[in-house]
Each structure stands twice: as structure tokens, then as C-alpha cells.
Amino acid sequence: MTAAARPLPKLDTLTWDQSSGRACVWCKKLLTTGAVHAGTIRERMGAHNLDTEVWACPLCAAGEGAAADV
Ligand SMILES: [Zn+2]
Fold first, then answer.
1. What range does the domain containing 38 cover?
2. 3 state SS for 18-67
3. What is the pTM of this model?
4. Ligand 1 center to residue 48 CA distance, Å?
5. How many A from CA of 43 to the centre of ligand 1?
6. What's the pLDDT at 70?
7. Centroid of ligand 1 to alpha carbon of 41 (angstroms)
């Protein structure tokens, strides 16, 4: 499964680090090198566009991260 095919978590379940792109969107590990763009979580709150770009560590992007077993 590719990162793009994997469902993204809801925006309100993300930590600050995840929503700011500093941590893996799936396993919450802080990203260093090799971060992979996981996609954009699209949400709206009234008139506000909350679209958030999220990133994944290489393991999760390859479907081998900690969250892959969930
Ligand atoms: Zn990860």
C-alpha cells in the first residue's frame, strides 16, 4: 500500500507536531530526514479552510510503520 492510498487521520486527532509537519502523521515519530508527503487532510470549520498538509516517516510511507498493524 502506498502512502497516498492510506487513510489519513482526522485533523482533530493530530498532535501539534503532526499538524505542523514535524511528526509522522501515523506513528507520531518526529521526522528528521526522508520525510514523505502523506497528503492533505481536507476539513472546513464554517468559513475557515483547515486543509493541512501532513508528512510521514519513510517506514509508514512504505506501509511498514508502527501504525500499519492497526
Ligand atoms: Zn511513521
1. 16-69
2. HHCCCECCCCCCECCCCCEEEEEECCEECCEECCEEEEECHHHHCCCCHH
3. 0.79
4. 28
5. 22
6. 46
7. 16
